[in-house]
Structures are given as C-alpha cells and as structure tokens.
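Annotated sample (chain length 236).
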Amino acid sequence: MSGKEDSWSDFLGLLLKAHRDSNKNQRISVDDLVDECKTFYFAGQETTNTLLGWTVFLLAHHTDWQEEARKEVLQLFGKETPNPDGIAELKTMSMILNECLRLYPPIISLVRKVEKEVRLGKLIIPANVELHIPSLALHHEPEFWGQEVELFKPERFAEGVVKATNNNIGTFLPFGTGPRNCVGFDYTTTEAKIALSMILQCYTFTFSQGYVHSPFHYVTLRPQHGVQVTVILHSL
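Output written by the structure step:
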C-alpha cells in the first residue's frame, strides 16, 4: 500500500484513513482499528473453518451432491487453481454452501442494542435494551422453510436467497443482514469456495465409522469431536 490517500482502498487502508479523518466526530480510535482487524481475522478464519467442516460433513453424507459439486468444479477449473471468474460461476456450490449455512450457521444468534425507544410491531422497545435474534431457530422454522426444514436440500436455493425465503430474507441470517451485515461474509464464502474446490479436485470423501454427530456451540457452532472422513485421492 502506497502513501497516497487515493490508493488506500483495501480494508486496512480504509481503517487507517478513518483513524486520520479530519472530522473528529467520525474519526476512529486505535483501539477501534485494532478491534476491527480482530473481527475481520475472526470472520475470515473461525467462521470459514466451521463452514468447511459442516460442508464436508454434509457432502460426505450426501455423496450425490458431492459429485454434482465436483463436476461443476472440474468443468470450470479442471485441475488448475481456482480463479476469480470461475469462483463467481459456482452455482451448485453456492446452493450447497447456503444450505449448509442454513442448517449449521457458524453464528447461531445475533445481538442488537436499541439506541432509542422504538416500536417493533405491537411492542414498544425502550432504549438500551439488548435484542437477541435466534438465527438458528429461524433457519429451522417450518413456517418459513416447509415441512422438510431438517433435510439437506440445496435445491431450495436454486433461484437465490430471496426466492428460497419467499421474500422473507430476514429468516436467513448466517451472518446477519442489512447495513450491519458481517464485514467478512463475502470474504468467508469466497475462501470456502476456493478451499472446497481444491478439495473436490483431488479427493472423494465418505464418513468414517468413528464419526459422532455432536454439534457444539463455543463462539461458533462447530462439530464437538471434529469431522472424521475416509478420503480417496484422485489420480492426477
């Protein structure tokens, strides 16, 4: 990153620029800058690891979808390193990842603090009240997702999130929504697509007999005992 102000377009550059803002009311502190970096690191590592773990779990169980995803990856990349243009065209994988995020969202609830008194439907919410939004519960609500809500059905996202939620996008909150949507959402899903593409290019995987299904919440929703799979290496 150069010293020119107009070249500070990456994430760290924008934070540094905000720290030096001429308007004191908009300037962020060093502590805020460090906290934002920590948040971005967390979003890019912890949530991606969790998402990949559950995706491997589901694809090991649903080998038909694993094969569909592999066909798509090989058609777009062959054995070459995934590229940005191809990543953007991974429709089947996007469907799979969205369904994984619905069934096993890394962040199972969101917290929002009310800044001032506000009306929420028929309720009056006082200022400084914390609202907890249970995204995991919303993702498993038959009223929104139908009676097959507990089943792994990536095809429900074939026409995108809006169609899958019947225009109720507030029922799909793997990383929040609106202007306070998680800053690492696109970063995390892109990382997951790259990693999963490279896995599918080289390996086929099925469940190991040692796997014990035990979702566990500690910061994120993760497999408590990991995901044990049997891996077969493809010939290169």
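Annotation: The mean pLDDT is 88.
Annotation: The longest strand covers residues 203-207.
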